[in-house]
Amino acid sequence: MKLLIVGGYGTFGGRIVELLENEPRLTVLVAGRSLSSAEAYCRARASARATLLPATFDRDGDLAAQLAGLRPDIVIDASGPFQAYGDASYRLIEACLDARIHYLDLADGSDFVAGVAAFDDRAVAAGIVVLSGVSSFPVLTAAVACRLTGDLARVDSIKGGIAPSPFAGVGENVIRAIAGYAGQPVRLVRDGSPRQARPFTEQMRYTIAPPGRVPLRNTLFSLVDVPDLRALTALWPQAKAIWMGAGPVPEVLHRALIGLAWFVRAGLIRSLSPLAPLMHWATNHLRWGEHRGGMFVEVEGIDRAGRPARRSWHLLAEGRDGPLIPSMAVEALVRKALAGEMPAPGARAAVRDLELEDYEALFAGRTIHAGFRDGAAETGRPLYPALLGDAWHGLPAAIRAMHDGTVAAEGRASVERGRGILSRIAAWFPGFPQAAADIPVKVRFDADGDGETWTRTFGTHSFSSHQSAGKGRSEHLMCERFGPLTFAMALVAGEDRLALVLRRWSFLGLPLPMWLCPRSSSHETVENGRFRFHVEISHPLTGLIVRYRGWLSPVSRPADGTTALESAPAD
To answer: Is 450's pLDDT higher than 90?
Structure first.
């Protein structure tokens, strides 16, 4: 199979090549206006098993002659910006139909993708596949929304967003597209009726948190002009609202873009397009934070029992794997075509041509983690099961038993303390126990409507803290309060352990900088069927503050007729 990738050495085209270069059955024409750039790109990927050939292709030139000379089986337009193609927006699609060549593109403009359906009759008659918007928006969002809404009697709203890593690398054409539509009117559905909105002048905050993983930091999302605004409306016409956003970071640059978009909305600036080069430079040079990205889709509606439902899907990608996700829809379609599973002929937005399972197969083996949350199922559950969601069931039974209704537990522990004056003061403040090699330990868990109070007794010394589900910017985190200090931690589930990873802290509700925060290493494990704990707190200025570790066995359950649990086996 021969692929022609227009913009093949660009940001998205290059990632398509990276995803498919291990397939020896492919010949990939890496094409663009600059033959030297195409040649340099192909030389840099000398280990590819696919055959990579540099080629010249000008989408504003004689398309029929260029296609006749290159003779591809599939054309993939990864150039753009599609919003700026002008009066001849669909020249390449028409040329592919005339030459009977299959066509895919990564268009991100709602108008462009919606207009592709006008070629459906011609594509069906020619037996040709023309798919537009073959990217995360709208292909992945549609696949996720199908999974989330599968058993709902009514879908009221669908919203989603993508939060790229600040180190992902954003192509110039993407920035040109954003600059072109920021503050300009776009069409969407709101309150069940068609409305106009202005990208980057509407915001929401959201925490992307796959169950059992360290969530992304709470992110500011702005409305963007993507195909989903209309493509998902066609799939769920009863939905009263469709909203899609982007959450670029650092947030200070995002807020600068919001301010400029408001200037456009107010008519003070005609367009941000002249600023695109500056925006591109700033995006790729002024960047800091974690090299992690994510995506979410959330639906609300009514289930078949008539109850309100709110379900969400969360994706987290670490490092270099995140930027590959927008190109994975093309990868999936090409691999299915190689397997003889070509999509049905026709011209359309590619919202029904891939399932979530197709993506999940590509996520496997990469540092890409996804999971579901059910708002109704989490309501009323104990603190830890509610925060962990689906990841709760993968924990060892002894850990689940400790956090699911146990009222009290007993065991043995050892305690170590730092010896410096600062570490002693830091340990005295929350009431940590004195050093001991082997002492009895008891823990009492008192649940209330706002969380759980843990009272720990080491020998004769007791101290307590209050744990609750985080809200606002601490959403999906477990917040533990010691007097005026509150520490927000992620519950991270592994194969045999539960780790608590510190993400935020505050004094009397006022956020404090993380560089000033104590360091914490805390986890729960199981050995020989027995629950074991390890808590270590330190600080660069003090060294070790306290380290306590040991084992516990539940000794009582709620007074609702359940029986006390038997003690765990002795050492």
So the answer is: no
Domain that holds residue 108: 2-132
Q: Say whether pLDDT at 567 is over 50.
A: no
- Tell how strand 129-132 and strand 346-349 pair up: parallel
Tell me the Ramachandran region of residue 257: left when phi exceeds 0, alpha when psi lies from -120 to 50, beta otherwise.
alpha
CATH code of the domain in which 14 resides: 3.40.50.720
Query: HEC states along 71-98?
Result: CCCEEEECCCCHHHCHHHCCHHHHHHHH
| pLDDT the model gives residue 108 | 86
Closest listed residue to residue 4, CA positions, set 67, 55, 75 = 75
Whether residues 416 and 291 fall in one domain: no
Distance of CA 540 to the CA centre of its chain: 32
- Give the C-alpha separation, 94 to 419, whole Å: 77
How far is the C-alpha of 200 from the C-alpha of 389, rounded, in Å? 32
Same-domain check for residues 41 and 91: yes
Give the span between the Cα atoms of 282 and 275, in whole angstroms: 11
Residue 212 tokens, joined? 């059992």
C-alpha 395: how far from chain center: 23
**Which region, left, alpha or beta, applies to residue 86 given φ > 0 means left and ψ of -120 to 50 means alpha?**
left
Same domain, 102 and 145: no
CA distance 535 to 544: 11
CATH number of the domain enclosing 388: 2.40.128.20
Q: What is the DSSP letter of 50?
A: S
Same domain, 307 and 456: no
Full DSSP string of 117-135: GGGHHHHHHHT-EEEE--S
Average pLDDT over residues 296-310: 95
- Regarding whether 482 and 445 lie in a shared domain, the answer is yes
| Per-residue tokens: 474 | 């601490």
Considering its fold, how many domains does the chain have in total?
Answer: 3
CA–CA gap between residue 54 and residue 43 (Å, rounded): 9
Is residue 16 domain-shared with residue 95, that is, in the same domain?
Answer: yes
Three-class SS state of 150: coil
Q: Each residue of 510-523: pLDDT tens digit?
A: 999 999 999 999 99
- Reported as a single tens digit per residue, the pLDDT across 130-151 is 999 999 999 999 999 999 999 8
Q: Give the SS3 label for residue 337.
A: helix
CA distance 265 to 183: 5
- Tens of pLDDT, residue by residue over 181-226, are 999 999 999 988 999 999 999 999 999 999 999 999 999 999 999 9
Among 199, 210, 22, residue whose Cα is nearest residue 111: 199
Which of 294, 313, 378, 307 is closest to 159 using CA atoms? 313
CATH number of the domain where residue 266 is located: 3.30.360.10
Query: Which residue in 186, 174, 170 sits closest to 114, CA to CA?
Result: 186
Q: Which of 109, 132, 155 is the last residue of a domain?
A: 132
Query: Residue 261 in 3-state DSSP?
Result: helix
Q: Look at residue 196 and give its three-state secondary structure.
A: strand
